[in-house]
Amino acid sequence: MPEKEVAEAIIHLYRRGFITLSEGNVSIRDGERFFITPGGLRKDRVRPEDIAVVGLDGKIIKGKPSSEYRLHLAIYRIRNDINAIVHTHPPFAVALAVSGISLEYPVLAEAVTFLGPVPIVPFELPSTDALAERAGEFIKKYDNLLLENHGAVTTAENLDLGLALMETLEHTAEVLWKALFIGRIKIFDRSEVEKLLSLRKTYGLSHRPWRAEDFRYNL
Questions:
Q1: What are phi and psi of 82, to 5 degrees?
Q2: Number of independent structural domains in the chain
Q3: Where residue 78 sits, what CATH number does that domain have?
């Protein structure tokens, strides 16, 4: 039941500290429509019956969707392989985005194989068509994004994977933040990244096939 999945996901994200009571949104695509968290409700109290429905034509079918529904709509229109979107404001990831430091650097084995490179989308006002369009440009090449001075977005073929990707994104951001504080960072070289990427098939990851050239190596 998509409504139940979306409601449970947003409550989970709030409890994990990835969003505040007034932030964040989650959606699941179902054919020519998608189910998305509502706007204007406390994120710890969202119920399945509160979930809004929006058509891929942009028409609101049911309820009051999150003000960021345009972002979800743009991504679904561009990528047919994406069926779930998670948008949060996790502290460490946002701190890096505010500082202009992306997650395109291969510093953790799990992040390379599971998350892939995560660029920073230049700032646009939240909840606007401009943000949706700008994120859409990046989602053509990447699966997961940092939004400059704003937040993070993960996409996947299902919501469980989208949530797991967000957890990995924030964990990677925290590790990189601490490593920057220490002042010594080991970045994998291209040959190491190629070996790590070869594990994706072993793990059954069918999302975009990354290449070593997609990462950045000079931090």
A1: -95, 125
A2: 1
A3: 3.40.225.10
DSSP 3-state of 156: strand
Is residue 47 situated within a structural domain? yes
Q: Phi and psi for 171 in degrees, rounded to 5?
A: -65, -45
- End-to-end, the C-alpha distance of the chain in Å comes to 43
Statement: residue 204 has pLDDT above 80: no
Find the mean pLDDT for residues 145-158: 97
The separation between CA 142 and the C-alpha centre of its own chain, rounded to angstroms, equals 10
* Residue 219 counted as domain residue: no
In a domain, 68, yes or no: yes
Identify the residue whose tokens are 């345009």: 70
- Which candidate in 3, 5, 23, 68 is catalytic? 68
| Domain-located, residue 148 | yes
What tens digit of pLDDT does each residue of 13-57 get?
999 999 999 999 999 999 999 999 999 999 999 999 999 999 999
Domain span at residue 169 reads: 2-214
Buried b (16+ CB within 10 A) or exposed e, 44-77: eebeeebbbbbeeeeeeeebebbebbbbbbbbbe
- Residue 68 appears among annotated catalytic residues: yes
Q: What does pTM read for this prediction?
A: 0.96
